[in-house]
């Protein structure tokens, strides 16, 4: 994804995150953040139709997932899962040992996805979301540089069968 693709991202963002969604300018700032790594996913041979995106900040050995969203018409097709796998693999390549994120208490679908990939509940951020003061669950992985974990991730990646082009935003 490139700066010119942000209009398509902004088609997804408010639907995925409601009134607390990021602005166009927030994404522009993220693209210029030296700690940020952002990715977009398009269906194979359809480069003009962004079906999802994700991103994380990398601080030393920790990758903090800041966003992961799928186009509402494309949900339940494994796109978010493929983006998460991509985040895990690229974060590992860049030196991460752990991944962390916050997720709404009410977002059980996302919680289930993250749990399938080894994220564990380590705490709560009370009234974290400004739009409705909803709490956030803090999720964290064990060390991802474990051979068994990486075998699991690579196996999930191969079995997904989803053909996506995922590109770094920068």
Verbal overview:
By secondary structure, the chain is an alpha+beta fold. It has one domain: Gcn5-related N-acetyltransferase (GNAT) (Aminopeptidase, 3-Layer(aba) Sandwich), CATH 3.40.630.30. It has five helices and seven strands. Strands 5-6-4-3-2-1-7 form a seven-stranded mixed beta sheet, with helices on both faces. A hairpin with a 6-residue loop joins β1 and β2. α3 runs antiparallel to α5. The chain is globular.
Write the layout of secondary structure elements.
Blueprint: H1 6-17, H2 24-31, E1 36-43, E2 50-59, E3 62-70, H3 79-93, E4 98-104, H4 108-116, E5 120-125, E6 136-140, H5 147-160, E7 164-168
Helix pairs in contact: 3-5
| Strand-pairing-aware structural class | alpha+beta
Q: Say what the CATH topology is.
A: Aminopeptidase
CATH architecture: 3-Layer(aba) Sandwich
Give the class-level CATH name. Alpha Beta
Arithmetic mean of pLDDT: 87
Approximately what portion of the residues adopt beta-strand conformation?
25-35%
Major sheet characteristics: 7 strands, mixed
- Count, helices: 5
Q: Using the alpha-carbon principal axes, give the shape.
A: globular
Residue windows where pLDDT falls under 50 for at least 5 positions: none
Q: What is the N-to-C succession of helices and strands?
A: HHEEEHEHEEHE
- Give a count of the beta strands, DSSP E runs of length 2 or more: 7
Q: In order across it, which strands form the biggest sheet?
A: 5-6-4-3-2-1-7
The CATH homologous superfamily is named Gcn5-related N-acetyltransferase (GNAT)
In whole angstroms, how far apart are the ends? 8 Å
Helix content: 25-40%
Number of domains: 1
The radius of gyration computed from the alpha-carbon positions, rounded to a whole number of angstroms, is: 15 Å
